[in-house]
Amino acid sequence: MPSFHDCPAVTRIYPDRIPEFAETALDALYGSLYSSLPQLRLSPLDGVHTYAAWQAGRLRALFLYACRGTEIRVVNEGMRVDEAAAICFARAVFDRHRDAERVHFHAVQCRRPPARMPSARFATSEDMVIELPGSEDAYTAALGKSTRKSLRQNIGRAAGIAHRWIAGADVDAAVVDAIIGFNRARMAQRRRTSALDDEAARRLLRLLRARGVVGTVTLGGRLCAGTLACRIGDDLYSLVNSHDPQHDALGMGTLARHLMILAAIRHGVRRFHLMGGNIGSKQPALACRVPLDDLLIYRNEVARLRHAAGLARLQLAAWEHELRMAMDDPELARRAGWAARGALGVAHWCREWKRGRRPWLRGSPRTSA
Question: Residue 164 burial (CB < 10 Å; 0-12/13-18/19+)?
Fold first, then answer.
């Protein structure tokens, strides 16, 4: 997103509505699934206002927001937020909404909090992103030696494997249901409940119809794995990647993801988003962590003090997130200090206990080479 150093020449607030140009403009400005109207419309947008800012005749910022008591909550997420754009937005909404005391951006890319207004920033989530090269061969060559070997062996063992890229508008709902069913079966194996309940599945199908791409993997003509994804411009977001548990021995989940990445390269995708969590399993595919922050801007210092309890909760959430990342990423764990290593050990013990295992027989998580 283009940046600007001073407030743009023209700003406008559209109260209680989203203008017609917003859908195309959001995609062009941010290229983020969570700033796209098809995704945002999965939740009610009643009472949502729109802020737009232009400079030299070009749209530079577009934020959808809702008023929640004394907080202005920005609805679109995942985008890169320029410091000057955030300040101009905050000043505009504080001027319009006199009771508002703080602006809250959730899960955005922000290099630093604005220095010209009272503000705070907390890293509370992340996206794992693969920057795709121009060819399948270049991507495969960049993978680690052991990753290439494992993929080559599993593809060789999966005789008759085939991958197909299907535009979401053309996909059969039964195929989507089958891939979701694989996810549920795998979660049941782990004695966990899939997040994809019936309502979530219906919402996902709506999103796929609007912006989706489905990758199917068949073995001997039978569906055995698949990827449910959404494309926003040059970016592809992998929302569900799952396989029939009967094919665990073939590493079918990793194979399905790899085949989808290769297909994305063929279809001109430049960035492949694996979303957050399970960092260690995504790094071999060349995914790099992109931190996503909660950014808060306050009307004044008094307002910041008045919201001290909320700041404390966000700080705790940021610490918890950092701990989870270190549990998933051996490199982060190796760099952790003694206090963090102790916390990692306790967290690992609790997680194993929750899963019904006996952690005292398994040892602590690896924190050294």
Answer: middle
Q: CA-CA distances (angstroms) from residue 186 to 180, 244, 344?
A: 10, 8, 26
Tokens coding 63: 């934020």
Give CA separation, 5 vs 55, 84, 87, in Å. Answer: 11, 6, 10
DSSP-derived 3-state class of residue 315: helix
Element at 254 (helix H, strand E)? helix 252-266
Contact (CB, 8 A) for 109 and 271: no
Q: What is the pTM of this model?
A: 0.86
**What confidence tier does 353 reach under pLDDT thresholds 50, 70, 90?**
low
Percent of the chain residues topping a pLDDT of 70: 86
Proportion of the chain in helix, strand, coil states, percent, rounded to 5: 45, 25, 30
In degrees and rounded to multiples of 5, residue 155 shows phi and psi of -65, -40
pLDDT tens-digit map of 141-166? 999 999 999 999 999 999 889 999 99
Half-sphere exposure of 348 (CA within 13 A, CB side): 22
For residues 87 and 104, give the distance between their C-alpha atoms in angstroms, rounded to a whole number.
12
Is 291 in a helix, a strand, or coil?
strand
Measured at the alpha carbon of residue 368, what is the angle toward residues 367 and 369, in degrees to the nearest 5?
A: 135
pLDDT tens for residues 251-303? 999 999 999 999 999 999 999 999 988 888 899 999 999 999 999 999 999 99
Indicate the SS3 state at residue 144: coil
Q: How remote is the C-alpha of 252 from its chain's centroid?
A: 23
pLDDT digits (tens, 9 = 90+) for 162-182: 999 999 888 899 999 999 999
- Give the up-direction half-sphere exposure of residue 31: CA atoms within 13 A in the CB hemisphere: 13
Side by side, which strands form the sheet with 58-68? 10-14, 49-55, 58-68, 71-74, 102-108, 288-298, 119-131, 271-275, 235-243, 222-232, 212-219, 161-167
Count of other CB atoms within 10 angstroms of residue 92? 18
